[in-house]
Amino acid sequence: MKAQLIYNAHAGQVDERADLERAVHYLEGQGWQVTWRETHGPGDAVTYAREAAARGCDVAIAAGGDGTVGEVAHGLAGSGTALGVLPVGTSNVWAREVGIPSAPYLLHPQVRASLGMGAPWLLPAAQVLVEGRRVRVDLGRVNGRHFLMWAGVGLDAKVAEEVEHNPEAKRRLGRLAFFLAGIYTVLAYRGVRAHVWVDGRRVTRRMIVAVVSNIQLYGGLVRISPLAKLDDGLLDVCIFQGSGAFSTARHLATVLVGQHLHDPQVDFYEARRVEIRPAEPLPIHVDGDFLGYTPAVVEAVPQALTVIVPANVPSRLFRQEEEATQEPRGLLQWLAGFAPYDPKRRRSSGG
């Protein structure tokens, strides 16, 4: 097995090089040939991923956080080289979503380092690379840049922009840097009137944030798009309406308790193409990294990437697997199926 490891030493708050070397040693013991490449700035992981695909590598291993995973996914889009992940970042949302072993979310990395714990999850994560499944998944693409997890326009992208401009704070504070930037941004942020085209149909909203998701999990803790599938050829779109800190706090509360899709101030769509044109430029992020400013054209790119996931990856993430595991239902069960609230029936065609 020919692999290229792409390591972002600036991801996370602790240098995990020693544990990464042990994981690579394990892979080599399994017959893998691993080339080590280290990034030094934005875009390097994209370049190295394209290099891996051009060299005919079987796997490109993203050793970093979600931004690194996103860059490697972008570089591999449309190729036959699979994406593998050794999570050493701040939140490691992709790893958490698919079940790749990663750091305990609530254990601060520097506390872990002071206890001499290292990164013990990297060896089990390396075992996933050897023993896991390879599946083909969709990607999103915004203004030409592919993403694996999500793209955001508005408030969350503004937070990403603030953190991007203070990399040392992110390095020292980790998730706390996003939390502090979020508080600062919420207090000053106001919704912006925007025209949004969903598969060609226009809606106009005063928008706080729009999140276009390929996965369900967001930020490591909440499922903003609980119906998203990695293989359905669609992106899940949530538009949070309103203006000011009160509206934002209200939306945050409903997201935390999983009730946001019931909120009339939240529009939910499944779409192949979304275009967002606000009255003033708004920031855009992809997979947590600041990208630029609107307008934003977001498209689904079906079956664009092969990923390595655990053998027991949750079936809820895949349409084909979920359909295959559904049991036949009797008449009463079929009738009962009409009762629960299904957000896919609500405003899913641009109304």
What does this protein structure show overall?
- The chain is of the alpha+beta class and 351 residues long.
- The chain has 2 domains: 2-131, Rossmann fold, CATH 3.40.50; 146-294, Tumour Suppressor Smad4 (Sandwich), CATH 2.60.200.
- The protein has helices spanning 17-29, 44-54, 66-76, 93-98, 109-114, 122-131, 155-164, 167-173, 175-188, 244-256, 319-325, 331-336; strands at 2-7, 33-38, 59-64, 82-87, 133-142, 145-147, 150-154, 192-198, 201-213, 217-218, 222-223, 235-241, 266-271, 273-278, 283-286, 289-293, 296-309.
- Strands 5, 6, 7, 8, 9, 12, 13, 14, 15, 16 and 17 form an 11-stranded antiparallel beta sheet that branches. It has a 4-stranded parallel beta sheet with strand order 2-1-3-4, with helices on both faces.
- A hairpin with a 2-residue loop joins strand 15 (283-286) and strand 16.
- Helix 1 (17-29) runs parallel beside helix 6 and helix 2 crosses helix 3 (66-76).
- It starts with a strand and ends in a 15-residue tail after the last helix.
Please give a handful of descriptors for the protein shown.
single chain; 351 residues; alpha+beta; Rossmann fold; Tumour Suppressor Smad4; eleven-stranded antiparallel β-sheet; four-stranded parallel β-sheet; 12 helices; 17 strands; 32% helix; 31% strand; globular
